[in-house]
Specification:
mainly alpha; 5 helices
Length: 120
């Protein structure tokens, strides 16, 4: 997914930001309780990670970012949006022979998004 107009320095910066934002979003997602400000930070961090992975990551990075977006949106009650991200990520991971642990995780995120979307 690398942007052809990025220099190596820009790509490296995008990968660094993607990783930092990704880790922060997961850190916030794992909290038992969050403040509204933390919810906002979690959502912004997940979207920032997805943006930066799309700029300088691989298709696998983008799929994993979509899985994170699905998880975050499901936690925030944005069911239909969560389901859309989860389905995109899930299809990619199944079609690209991901390891068993990642496929299982994708199934869990898909189930979480379906529940948030009211699809029991």
């Amino acid at each position: 997914m690398n942007s052809p107009t990025l220099t190596e320095e820009q790509a490296q910066a995008n990968r660094w930001h993607a990783s930092e934002c990704n880790n922060r979003a997961w850190e916030l997602a794992e909290l038992a309780a969050r403040t509204p400000e933390q919810d906002s930070e979690m959502l912004n961090a997940a979207h920032a990670a997805a943006f930066h992975w799309r700029q300088a990551g691989t298709a696998l990075h983008v799929a994993r970012a979509q899985m994170l977006l699905a998880h975050v949106h499901a936690q925030l009650g944005h069911g239909q949006l969560a389901l859309r991200y989860a389905e995109r990520s899930h299809v990619f991971l199944l079609d690209n022979n991901s390891p068993d642990w990642e496929r299982a995780f994708s199934h869990a995120i898909l189930a979480q998004a379906a529940l948030a979307a009211g699809e029991n």
